[in-house]
Design brief:
14 strands; disordered N terminus; Dihydrodipicolinate Reductase, domain 2; 8-stranded mixed sheet; 6-stranded parallel sheet; alpha/beta; Rossmann fold
């Protein structure tokens, strides 16, 4: 993958206003499609819209691979077969086309294409144009996850997320139309690619969302973290691979801590610790033991000594406002993803975990698709892509620190400013709620 690094201000809240005439034209063409994030009202008492009141919007899908249980299945499959993938009600979206990078011996793309009359094209441009000479779709869902791709020396699987986004936006430039894009999971995965994707979305005014389904899925127990609260300490727990699940753990952590007073201004430094150094931060009081204990108690875990885990890893980082972030990756010990939070003035530590329900058909992806549906109908992201940009950068820098013998890395490039929004998580908003609400 190419690694093109673009120069830009550390404050990423303002788009780059320089560029060629073609980009200026695209800005004008996309002027009616704002890049901000809308607040989400409470959907608890909202009346469901009539089926006739909302016309489905067409989308193109750009996929690495499509098999049962893969992200393509539990996102795109819900467009084709309903929220529960049982043939019942689904989103106000219609799949117009697909591009599939790899066809496996368990491929579902071809049988689903035949069953639902959805054409598969051999290039991303053709998928975005549905084989024509203009862009008829009203959104693109890019799923650069799964499939067979190489890894780099840092252990990052080089999924083609930048290549997909580059081809999608090249088509926007060629045909003079911009539509919303969702990119699954973290950006990049390497920082230069993540930043390139973000910069291009800003330069072309592409309404852009990305990230983990964990931020909008079920949580157990329910905790209340008020917007504008003051946080004294925060600990995250993750499991499985550092790259593939580290992104989930960091986004789940970030969607809680971004609610603190002063919004988000980014991260000063990142360090990856392993071995005894992981536990020293607790022994030395750098991270409060009580907050760690609450976070680990929230997830299933092995009933043995944690410190015997040979794969324990800590992503340690400091925010611009001084808050210390700590995400413990404990693949041999923990069996889930959680966060513990100590709010100023409260004695009890708040803790919750991502409740990974599998039935019906991984429902947290229904709530991720609900946020995507809303963006495609309103033209505005449901929540800021900068959250995913920041966590992608933290993860890349942590994995870089790991291969550099746990060096602490200063990260001026991660001084990423954004304004969080109070977007809900499952079971809200209701899946049958009007995606045009604002």
């Amino acid at each position: 993958m190419n690694a093109l690094t673009k120069k830009s201000s550390n404050n990423l809240s303002s788009p780059n206003t320089s560029g060629a005439t073609r980009r200026d034209w695209l800005r004008g063409a996309a002027a009616s499609v704002a890049c901000g994030s809308l607040p989400w009202p409470s959907a608890a008492n909202a009346e469901p819209p009539s089926k006739q009141s909302i016309k489905p919007k067409s989308v193109a899908a750009v996929l690495t691979a499509y098999e049962h249980g893969l992200h393509a299945d539990v996102l795109i499959g819900k467009i084709l077969e309903g929220w529960k993938q049982d043939g019942g009600p689904g989103p106000a979206l219609k799949l117009a086309s697909m591009y599939v990078d790899q066809f496996t011996d368990r491929d579902l793309a071809r049988p689903m294409s035949k069953k639902y009359g959805v054409p598969i094209f051999d290039t991303i441009e053709k998928a975005v144009t549905v084989g024509g000479e203009h862009i008829p779709v009203e959104g693109v869902i890019s799923i650069g996850e799964h499939g067979s791709y190489p890894s780099n020396s840092k252990g990052q699987v080089l999924h083609p997320r930048r290549r997909f986004f580059e081809a999608i936006t090249d088509a926007f430039q060629k045909y003079g139309r911009v539509v919303p894009v969702f990119s699954d999971k973290h950006l990049g995965p390497v920082w230069s690619d993540a930043k390139w994707m973000y910069d291009r979305s800003r330069e072309m005014n592409v309404p852009f969302m990305a990230g983990s389904s964990m931020t909008v899925g079920y949580r157990t127990p329910h905790i209340s973290v008020p917007m504008g609260c003051e946080l004294e300490a925060a600990v995250g727990i993750g499991y499985s691979g550092l790259d593939i699940y580290g992104s989930h753990a960091l986004e789940f952590f970030q969607c809680h801590v971004e609610r603190r007073k002063g919004a988000e201004r980014g991260v000063k430094w990142v360090q990856c610790l392993q071995g005894d150094a992981v536990w020293r931060v607790l022994d030395d009081g750098l991270i409060p033991q009580a907050v760690f204990d609450a976070a680990i108690a929230a997830v299933p875990h092995q009933q043995r000594k944690m410190r015997e885990s040979k794969q324990a890893t800590l992503f340690l980082f400091q925010y611009q406002d001084g808050l210390l972030g700590a995400v413990f990756m404990l693949p041999e010990f923990a069996g889930g993803t959680s966060v513990g939070l100590k709010l100023k003035g409260q004695t009890q530590v708040l803790a919750t975990r991502f409740d990974e329900r599998t039935e019906p058909r991984y429902p947290h992806f229904a709530w991720l698709l609900k946020g995507i549906e809303r963006m495609i109908h309103t033209g505005q992201p449901s929540y800021p892509v900068e959250r995913t940009l920041l966590t992608s950068g933290i993860l890349d820098r942590a994995l870089t620190s790991r291969v550099r013998r746990n060096e602490k890395l200063l990260t001026p490039e991660l001084a990423i400013h954004y304004q969080p929004v109070d977007y809900p998580h499952a079971p809200n908003p209701r899946l049958d709620s009007d995606p045009t609400q604002s």
